Amino acid sequence: MTAPRPKSDVPFYLCLSLLGGLYVGLVAALLVADVAYTSTVDLGHVFASPQIRAAIWLSLISCSAAAILSVWVAVPLGYLLSRTRFPGRGFIDLLVDVPILLPPLVVGLSLLILFQMPPGAWFQRNVFAVAYAVPGVVLAQFAVSAAFAVRTMRVTFDQIDPRTEDIARTLGCSRAQAFWLVTLPEARRGILTAFTLAWARALGEFGPILVFCGATRMRTEVLSTSVFLELSIGNLEAALGVSLLMIGVAVFVLVITRAFGLRGTGLI
Amino acid sequence: MRTSSSTMIAVGSLLLLGLFAAGLFWRERQHRPTPANQPLIVYAAPTSRLPLELIATDYETETGQRVELRFGASEDILTKVRFPNATEPADLFIPADDSYIRQAREAGLAAESLPIARVHGVLLLAKTNPKGIATWADLLRDGVKVAVPNPAAAVGKLARNHLTKTGKWAALEPHAVDTGTVTEAANATKIGGVDAAIVWDAVAHAPAYKEQTVLTVPELDGVEGRVEMAVLNQTRDPEAARRFARYVAASDRGLVRFREFKFRVEENASTWADGRTADVGGTK
After folding, report:
1. CA of A64 vs chain B CAs: smallest distance (Å)
2. CA distances (Å), B152 to each of A3, B21, B266, in order?
3. Same domain membership, residue B76 and residue B54
4. Which contacts (CB < 8 Å, 24+ apart) does range A122-130 have?
5. Could you tell me which of A181, A126, A186 has the C-alpha nearest to residue A158?
6. How far apart are the C-alpha atoms of A153 and A150, rounded to whole Å?
7. How many independent structural domains does chain B possess?
């Protein structure tokens, strides 16, 4: 008696590809539609605009600063939420998700109110201006992107076996040394994912920036604000040009980050 | 001693952060006003953006006074005016139409305003007008979609009220697509998502829609609003704020720019020279 012939895996992979392909197809179709509606002349106008060039630089710098700050907050918070039990842990876990759940405009409005209250107003008078200023742009981006970074780092630490850290402690490491020398290098991919996710989220951030920092050309205008400003006067061609530019900038930065961040890990 | 990879990454990220902070500080410092040259802060709706940007440049050239324009949808800028910034209170407010000026007055945020232009409801047709719309009756044909801004936008509210009063809304409603702002309604016609949109004439005549037809129909005759500029009570320099408001509303200064962009400006406005000597009370 011969063993039954294994059934072909083709239908299985075909089903997966079809279902997954629906989404990939949608994203690709969106990009094709955007490219079809705009032209090289429109893109030329976008690059020629000093306001938009200023917005590109501010976007690049503020997104990078917000993403680094997000990782600095996300690593300790993610580790604490993943590896320790303390009173109020469930509440903090929930609180961290609030910026993800809140409508973006509400995040901006809340920041605006916070900096009008006596402590916030004192800070602005005596330290530096935040609302309607560049620090406010970074803060608005950080407020939302850090939530995504924390979530990513928590999952990362959940997936790292705590035994390696325990072994390091049996070999004489303190908890801090075990974290610094063993767990953190193991979390490298997660940190990179948290950084890129936070960076991409910060680039697309619009609502909180508009409410908290306004849309002042050459000052607090980032690329997402440029899209809004062009749309608001019906200049769809320029708005799409800026959108395509945002996609280009995001892809370039993410590819470079991944190339450097994952070098030596054998993952690229 | 060998440095761990974690230490290198941590130090590297802090150095980068320091570099970015220095870059942002330098950039902010370049734009930071000196005490002697505080800019006038104007919250403006994007519908007036093109003339206002030119007027701000003209004013700066003529008087040396800097003007900082901050744009946002009328509801958004009204919200910002409600929460004045401790270090940079706003001076002037120019929303899409006078309904927001009334709200600002009721909230005690502004006491005086100057009329700039009148806006009327018109039909902006889709590019190439594929449905051949030429009259109001054409909007009621099968398959015709008409974008009507949300009632939160003044033109949407006024158009709905007027058409309801004249008994025309019930017939149009099945064809109406509720869009957000007046610009979103106009953009929907540009993309071809709808066949026509009820918008302000000043919006319809903007350069972005120059390839599209604008229809003035008697059915929208009563849909009218005003563009006004309010001097805010929170201003640190009421005299400077009033001076700029007079410049914007002067027939031989700001209104020239508004006229260039097809706004129906106030015909009886005073000139800049007249206005400088006159007391600014504006409309109350």
Report:
1. 8
2. 71, 40, 25
3. yes
4. A124/B85, A124/B86, A124/B87, A125/B86, A125/B87, A129/B85, A129/B87, A129/B88
5. A186
6. 5
7. 2
Condensed to tens digits (0 to 9), the pLDDT of residues A197-207 reads 999 999 999 98
Q: How many CB pairs under 8 A join A and B?
A: 118
A65 to chain B: nearest residue by CA?
A: B17
CATH code assigned at B196? 3.40.190.10
* CA distance to partner chain B, nearest, from residue A112 (Å): 7
0.95 surpassed by complex ipTM = no
In a domain, B90, yes or no: yes
* Contacts by A175-183, CB closer than 8 A, 24 or more apart: A179/A79, A180/B4, A180/B6, A180/B7, A181/B4, A181/B6, A183/A79, A183/A157
Q: How far is CA A200 from CA A28, A251, B93, in A?
A: 18, 9, 34
Sorted by sequence, the CB contacts under 8 Å of residue A184 that are 6+ apart come out as A75, A191, B6
* Co-location of B210 and B123 in the same domain: yes
Q: How far is CA A216 from CA A109, B46, B211, B248, in A?
A: 17, 12, 29, 19
**pTM to 2 decimal places:** 0.79
Domain limits for position B129: 119-224
**If you average pLDDT over every residue of chain A, what do you get?**
89
d(CA A184, CA B213): 63
Residue B185: closest CA among B206, B164, B166, B167: B206
B59 and B97, same domain (yes or no): yes
Distance CA A99, CA A107 (A): 7
B89, B148: one domain: no
**Are B212 and B236 contained in the same domain?**
no
In chain B, what residues touch A134 (CB-CB under 8 Å)?
24, 27-28
* Beta-strand pair B110-125/B214-215: antiparallel
Burial status of residue A51 (CB atoms within 10 A of its CB: 0-12, 13-18, 19 or more):
middle
Domain stops at, among B181, B206, B224: B224
Q: Compare CB distances from B88 to A132, A181, A234 and report the shortest one's residue.
A: A132
Q: Is B21 on the interface with A (CB under 8 A)?
A: yes
In a domain, B72, yes or no: yes
Check residue B143 and give left, alpha or beta (phi > 0: left; psi -120 to 50: alpha): left
Identify whether residues B113 and B147 lie together within a single domain.
no
The model's pLDDT over B80-121, given as tens digits with 9 standing for 90+, comes to 888 877 777 899 999 988 888 999 999 999 988 899 998 899
8 Å CB contact between A198 and A149: yes
Q: Is residue B142 part of a domain?
A: yes
Domains annotated for chain A, with CATH where assigned, are 58-261 (1.10.3720.10)
